[in-house]
Specification:
Helix content of chain B: over 70%
Order of helices and strands of chain A: HHHHHHHHHHHHH
Shape of chain B: globular
Oligomer: heterodimer
CATH architecture of the largest domain in chain B: Orthogonal Bundle
CATH topology of the largest domain in chain B: MetI-like fold
Largest sheet of chain B: 2 strands, antiparallel
CATH class of the largest domain in chain B: Mainly Alpha
CATH superfamily of the largest domain in chain B: MetI-like
Largest sheet of chain A: none
Radius of gyration of chain A: 24 Å
Strand content of chain B: under 5%
Number of helices of chain A: 13
Strand order of the largest sheet of chain B: 1-2
Number of helices of chain B: 13
Number of domains of chain B: 2
Structural class of chain A: mainly alpha
Largest interface: A-B, 94 and 95 residues
Chain lengths: 293, 301
């Protein structure tokens, strides 16, 4: 199975490998400058997060902290009830990830492996709905959910996840199409039902794309801003995204605390990225018929 | 196969199929069909989202086009934003992907470095850039200082604010880059060898080999980029609040403030329809235009 997704091992070194040395030096220089531009803001945040209250505002730029104030992380997170909102975000993101991935897998299986009238029409409707700008739905759905008494609760952030995600469904269908139907048929011979075929055979075989969906779903939920912003009123229900955006305006005098809190907010996604990178690149590559190396 | 048994299975399959896709059908009804129908009606009403909507005909659109002092400015700002942002991130992402597709020492590190900012949560990056743009102690002005330039009011200078927001967005150019990179890597090596044997170099190789083969990806990114850019919201809400003097008032942000700030639900939905039509228009134009240069591999067979 594995060889199917891996890209050719030898990469392009340009039409002429030996002649192009000066060109490569220019390339390296551009990449180095770009890398500094990409990484420096992040390093800057880290240094600010470690600086003392007065060190941030020195008029002569001071690039590195003279002493490390790790207590900023404690103070920063205490002052805004950070951990309460961290828990909120984790809870919402996990439930919403489970919902999106599970429902998309079930729908994807139905659309790609089962035969029933109207299948193609539904497929194009789901895919087509991705083209609809988010704001068209937002206001009527907001009103609907408010009528249901869901205003100022987490339900609008969690329940819709269980109603399938067109993009994930599409991704899963694409991947399923690379798995021969003979696997299903063999399992059916052995007496397996659809549920077993899907969860025992197809899902384990689709691990790269399932992991990709999990990463994307968690990412999306952790990132979600507009929905929590319009639905959640009470501060103790807020997610981190809303909390940090709000505190960025109020905390202009205590950047070091803010940056410390901001860094902890970034951490889960960074961890997921570094651990899931391999699967993620494969899963993304499956859309493109060649994996990334 | 026994025909009775197969018919039985077919009937059962019908139910089974619909059972499997029922979550998405429900989702489609709630998030697509229902809002589409209702928002046609709501756009023609005066409505605060709480009391009963009151039918006013085309008053909302009338006010929008002739009275509202901010609408035309918001529209113009939105167009600037899309017009600069989309090509910059597309072309930049592609050039970067081509650079990162070479076998240079430390290439994996470079790829990770460019991709890293896109992994961060958006609100984290936006708040981070807000501090980078802080006039007195922010990183942006300190860098300017290194080059001996005077400090600048990045986010509170009317002429600069939109530009600053776009620059902050380009920090996450790695998202497009990674997709282009995977596209470039799927180009068969022998095509490059063949073209270099024909004596093609640099631009000619790009024009005749690379570009046609990644055109479908380029096109998809263009469409998604346009749709996404027209709907940008958090960038402005977090960094500038639409100011100074509406200089960063993107249409989507105006809709948000009209609906959830001023409680003008009907009016906001009327604006949503304008935005929707604009996005549709540009998507269709891009589709038409793309027929001229995007050739899918299967077309030739």
């Amino acid at each position: 199975m594995k060889t199917e997704y891996s890209a050719p091992a030898v990469r392009i070194a340009g039409p002429s490998r030996r002649k192009a040395q000066p060109v490569n030096i220019i390339r390296m220089a551009v990449l180095l400058i770009g890398t500094v531009a990409m990484l420096y803001p992040l390093l800057w945040v880290i240094t600010i997060a470690l600086k003392g209250n007065n060190d941030i505002f020195t008029t002569t730029p001071q690039w590195l902290p003279t002493e490390f104030h790790f207590e900023n992380f404690v103070k920063g997170t205490k002052e805004i009830h950070f951990w309460q909102m961290f828990k909120n975000s984790v809870f919402i993101s996990i439930l919403s990830t489970i919902g999106q991935v599970a429902s998309s897998i079930v729908v994807g299986y139905g659309l790609s492996r089962l035969r029933f009238p109207g299948r193609k029409l539904w497929f194009s409707s789901f895919i087509g709905s991705m083209m609809l700008p988010g704001f068209v739905g937002l206001v009527p759905v907001f009103h609907l959910f408010s009528q249901l008494g869901w205003y100022n609760t987490w339900l609008p952030l969690i329940v819709p996840s269980y109603l399938g995600n067109p993009a994930f469904t599409f991704l899963f269908i694409q991947f399923l199409s690379t798995i021969p139907k003979s696997f299903d048929e063999a399992a059916k011979m052995d007496g397996a039902g659809d549920t077993q075929i899907l969860w025992r055979i197809l899902v384990p075989m689709s691990l790269p794309v399932v992991v990709t969906m999990i990463i994307f779903a968690f990412n999306g939920s952790w990132n979600q801003y507009l929905e929590p912003l319009i639905y959640l009123v009470d501060q103790d229900k807020w997610t981190l995204s809303v909390a940090l955006a709000s505190f960025a305006s109020n905390w202009t005098t205590q950047w070091n605390y803010f940056m410390a809190a901001d860094l902890i907010y970034m951490l889960p996604l960074l961890i997921i990225f570094f651990f899931g990178q391999k699967y993620f690149m494969q899963g993304l590559g499956s859309v493109n018929s060649a994996g990334l190396k | 196969m026994n025909s009775v048994a197969s018919r039985k299975r077919d009937r059962f399959g019908w139910v089974k199929g619909y059972l499997h896709i029922s979550p998405s059908i429900l989702g489609f009804c709630i998030f697509v069909a229902y809002p589409l129908v209702m928002s046609v009606y709501y756009a023609l009403t005066k409505w605060d989202g709480y009391n009963k909507p009151e039918y006013v005909g085309f008053d909302n659109f009338n006010y929008l086009f002739t009275v509202d002092p901010v609408f035309w400015k918001a529209l113009r700002i939105t167009f600037y934003y899309v017009l600069i942002n989309v090509p910059a991130s597309l072309i930049g992402g592609l050039l970067l992907a081509m650079l990162l597709n070479k076998n240079l020492p430390g290439i994996k590190f470079f790829r990770t470095a460019f991709y890293l900012p896109t992994v961060l949560p958006m609100i984290a990056t936006l708040t981070l850039w807000k501090f980078i743009y802080q006039p007195q102690y922010g990183l942006a002005n300190r860098v300017l200082h290194l080059f001996g330039a005077d400090p600048v009011n990045w986010l509170s200078d009317e002429r600069l604010a939109l530009f600053s927001v776009i620059i902050a967005g380009l920090w996450q150019i790695g998202g497009g880059m990674i997709i282009f990179l995977s596209g470039l890597q799927s180009i068969p090596q022998d095509l490059y060898e063949a073209s270099s044997m024909d004596g093609a170099k640099g631009w000619a190789v790009f024009r005749n080999v690379t570009l046609p083969l990644i055109a479908p990806i380029l096109f998809l990114q263009l469409i998604l980029g346009i749709i996404g850019a027209f709907q940008s919201f958090a960038q402005v809400q977090v960094m500038t609040g639409g100011g100074p003097n509406y200089a960063t008032e993107l249409l989507n942000f105006k809709i948000y403030s009209d609906v959830f700030g001023s409680k003008m639900f009907g009016y906001g939905i009327a604006e949503v329809w304008i935005l929707f039509l604009i996005i549709m228009f540009f998507t269709l134009i891009t589709f038409r235009f793309s027929n001229q240069f995007v050739h899918y591999e299967n077309d030739n067979r």
